[in-house]
UniProtKB/TrEMBL annotation, chain A:
Official protein name in the record: Sulfurtransferase
PANTHER family linked to this entry: SULFURTRANSFERASE TUSE
Subcellular location: Cytoplasm
Protein EC: 2.8.1.-
Pfam families in the cross-refs: DsrC
Family, per entry: Belongs to the dsrC/tusE family.
Source organism per UniProt: Franzmannia pantelleriensis
Principal subcellular localisation of the protein: cytoplasm
From TrEMBL, chain B:
Cited InterPro entries: DsrEFH-like, Sulphur_relay_TusB/DsrH
Superkingdom of origin: Bacteria
GO biological process: tRNA wobble position uridine thiolation
Organism of derivation: Franzmannia pantelleriensis
Example of a GO cellular component annotation carried by this entry: sulfurtransferase complex
Pfam families tied to this protein: DsrH
Record-annotated membrane-spanning stretches: none
Protein name: tRNA 2-thiouridine synthesizing protein B
Automatic annotation (TrEMBL), chain C:
InterPro entries, per database record: DsrEFH-like (IPR027396), Sulphur_relay_DsrE/F-like (IPR003787), Sulphur_relay_TusC/DsrF (IPR017462)
Tree of life domain: Bacteria
Protein name, as recorded: tRNA 2-thiouridine synthesizing protein C
Family: Belongs to the DsrF/TusC family.
PANTHER family the UniProt entry points to: PROTEIN TUSC (PTHR38780:SF1)
């Protein structure tokens, strides 16, 4: 579940978007590609096509299972959707350094993964 | 050998049947907390043929006034006995 | 195909004995399974007693807004939780067969239940 504690607002094209202390959306419906861009820009991340295809995999995962994936199932889901070359933790670590499952979920507008390091 | 613990009375919960179904031929069953009701002569039949493998915890029997009312086939152990049973087992599985 | 022995199963056996919606036991058991699997443990699930009703097809979210179990069950494969054992007696008591369930399962008679418990180094009961 998303945290319900509003910690701050992110300005996205003039509209305030509520975030929790860790930068996850308070209202998952607020998500749009522009929100992802704004969240990424805050951390000086640039979203390439390779990022976007993983974000799409994450959103699809949440649609199907109503949960954000931990790292292992994320790797598996990416492999199934984008092929074995991309279904590797190295690829995801390169795209989303630190914690791909957590950072990816945040940019994709999903709740924080429950079982994440 | 697995030590199974059961803390519900057979008259109040059917979980004892799940415990029995999951028990192997050498496994042991220890009745604790409300589970010690099952050590009464009128209820012990629920546990079928566990001769030598059915235990009840003395402290829980005493607390319920049942220490002197246990069926003869039930082996009564105290807390140290519980520890010993745990040490003899490969693992413990609790049923509640 | 369904005859490989329970001895080959996994490191952790999680026993699920509660129905969906009525309590949080089922969800807590599934959460424990997912956490263990996320950390690379090989997990086996055993649905016992009322727990078999967690697998019934066509279930939904609860009327009081309780989250449904089906999406979580469908997610298990993504966590490589593929060994789903069910208590055959519990199915029989409820007039259910494996065909009534959401996912492919391996029904076990009591002697096999005991073997499944013995075969896993760690057993958690929910």
């Amino acid at each position: 579940m998303a945290s319900s504690e509003i910690y701050r607002y992110l300005d996205v094209l003039g509209k305030p978007v509520a975030l929790d202390p860790e930068g996850f959306l308070i209202h998952l419906d607020d998500w749009s590609p522009a929100v992802a861009e704004a969240l990424a820009a805050e951390e000086s991340r640039t979203l390439t096509d390779e990022h976007w295809e993983v974000i799409e995999v994450l959103r699809d995962f949440y649609d199907r299972f109503e949960a954000s994936p931990a790292m292992r199932p994320l790797v598996k889901a990416v492999g199934q959707a984008l092929g074995p070359e991309k279904g590797k933790s190295l690829h995801l670590m390169r795209l989303f350094p630190d914690s791909p499952a957590k950072v990816g979920a945040r940019l994709a507008g999903l709740p924080k993964p429950a079982n994440c390091l | 050998m697995i030590l199974h613990t059961l803390n519900r009375s057979p008259t109040e919960s059917r979980v004892y049947r799940q415990a029995l179904a999951a028990m192997g031929p050498d496994d042991r069953l220890l009745l604790i907390e409300d589970g010690v009701q099952g050590a009464l002569p009128s209820l012990v039949r629920h546990f079928g043929e566990l001769e030598g493998r059915l235990f009840a915890l003395r402290e829980d029997l005493e607390a319920r006034g049942l220490a002197g009312r246990c069926a003869a086939e039930v082996l009564v152990v105290d807390a140290d006995g519980f520890v010993a049973l745990t040490e003899e087992a490969d693992k413990t599985v609790s049923w509640f | 195909m369904q005859h490989d022995s329970v001895e080959t199963a996994g490191e952790l056996l999680i026993i699920l004995r509660h129905a969906p919606h009525g309590s949080s036991w089922l969800r807590e058991g599934l959460d424990a399974a997912l956490v263990a699997a996320a950390f690379g443990r090989q997990v086996t699930l055993l649905f016992c007693g009322e727990g078999v009703t967690a697998l019934v097809a066509e279930q939904t979210a609860g009327p009081l807004g309780q989250k449904g179990t089906q999406p979580t069950l469908e997610m298990l494969a993504m966590y490589d939780i593929d060994t789903l054992l069910v208590d055959q007696q519990a199915l029989d008591e409820r007039g259910l067969t494996a065909a009534d369930l959401l996912l492919p399962v391996r029904p076990l008679a009591p002697p096999q239940l005991a073997a499944a418990l013995a075969a896993h180094p760690l057993v958690l009961n929910f």
